[in-house]
TrEMBL record:
Source organism of the structure: Sandaracinobacteroides saxicola
Listed cofactors: [4Fe-4S] cluster
Reaction equation(s) it catalyzes: [[Fe-S] cluster scaffold protein carrying a second [4Fe-4S](2+) cluster] + N(6)-octanoyl-L-lysyl-[protein] + 2 oxidized [2Fe-2S]-[ferredoxin] + 2 S-adenosyl-L-methionine + 4 H(+) = [[Fe-S] cluster scaffold protein] + N(6)-[(R)-dihydrolipoyl]-L-lysyl-[protein] + 4 Fe(3+) + 2 hydrogen sulfide + 2 5'-deoxyadenosine + 2 L-methionine + 2 reduced [2Fe-2S]-[ferredoxin]
Species classification: Bacteria, Pseudomonadati, Pseudomonadota, Alphaproteobacteria, Sphingomonadales
Keywords: 4Fe-4S, Cytoplasm, Iron, Iron-sulfur, Metal-binding, S-adenosyl-L-methionine, Transferase
Protein name stated in the entry: Lipoyl synthase
């Protein structure tokens, strides 16, 4: 029988507690984002790691506005009709990367079901500006699913050449109707499989939250599905309820359980796995990118395919 992840307690456990951000570097990062009129998922999604990341001047930029056309039960980003696309945004993102001295940048966005291409062209413009103005910065994108849009949207982004293409599955298929009602599990899988098919050199990445009521075997099946789609990097983190109106936390998962999930995922063949209570898609993304590069080199060397 499948085993549901254990309910530890309703009060947030000690391993999920983080310090409030107070450093001067945190304030400087926030000031820069406001000056360039940029949104960040760090703020909009109430990420628990914002203090650590912004102190290190690492911020995940959220393009295409701060208003999403969907209302996922786990997400703190506001829902409504978004405003017009900011044509200066790509330049501002590149300027931020330069001023922060970023070696690696993560770009995500709200869902823009109101746009014919779902906002894909804005991702392309951002990548192009970063390549032009910050050529040494590696680029990781975390896109929506572009559901009900032409696959040309994904093809255009892949052609622009990001280093990492991330799209999160978020949870197990059984929970999609309540947790991610506007999305479809197998569509998201096919998107990532398409990316890998278009350019095998791009690292693909996806993440799931635990503590929403999923069962162990369901999560194992998601891992298998991801590997079948050629996904390189898996992230697993604890779901935290942003507000009382969002989906409730069913379980606070212990750190040792995350360690066991990481071991299982590595055994299934992922190039890299990050699994811990505070793991989020862009947490330590730069360091993880370097690890992925090293893992791929080792894999190629083992197969006798490495080049000088």
């Amino acid at each position: 029988m499948n085993e549901t992840l254990p309910l530890i307690r309703t009060r947030k456990p000690d391993w999920l507690r983080v310090r409030a951000p107070t450093s001067p570097a945190f304030a400087e990062t926030r000031k820069l984002m406001r000056r360039l009129n940029l949104n960040t998922v760090c703020e909009e999604a109430a990420c628990p790691n914002i203090g650590e990341c912004w102190t290190q001047k690492h911020a995940t930029v959220m393009i295409l506005g701060d208003t999403c056309t969907r209302a996922c039960a786990f997400c703190n980003v506001k829902t409504g009709m978004p405003g017009p696309v900011d044509v200066l945004e790509p330049v501002h993102v590149a300027e931020a990367a330069g001023e922060l001295g970023l070696e690696h940048i993560v770009i995500t966005s709200v869902d823009r079901d109101d746009l014919l291409d779902g906002g894909a062209r804005q991702f392309v413009r951002v990548i192009e500006e970063l390549r032009k103005r910050a050529p040494k910065t590696t680029i990781e994108i975390l896109t929506p699913d572009f559901r009900n849009k032409s696959m040309d949207a994904v093809k255009a982004i892949v052609a622009a050449g990001p280093d990492v293409y991330n799209h999160n599955l978020e949870t197990v298929p059984r929970l999609y109707p309540t947790i991610r009602p506007g999305a479809r599990y197998y569509h998201s899988l096919r998107l990532l499989e398409t990316v890998k098919g278009l350019d095998a050199g791009i690292f693909t990445k996806s993440g799931v939250m635990v503590g929403l009521g999923e069962e162990r075997q369901e999560l194992h099946q998601v891992m298998d599905d991801m590997r079948s789609a050629g996904i390189d990097f898996l992230t697993v983190g604890q779901y935290l309820q942003p507000t009382p109106r969002h989906a409730k936390v069913v379980a606070f998962v212990e750190p040792k359980t995350f360690a066991s999930y990481a071991a299982i995922a590595r055994a299934k063949g992922f190039l890299l796995v990050a699994a811990s209570p505070l793991t989020r898609s862009s947490y330590h993304a730069g360091a993880d990118f370097a690890k992925m590069q090293a893992a791929r080199r080792a894999q190629l060397e083992k197969a006798g395919l490495a080049t000088a």
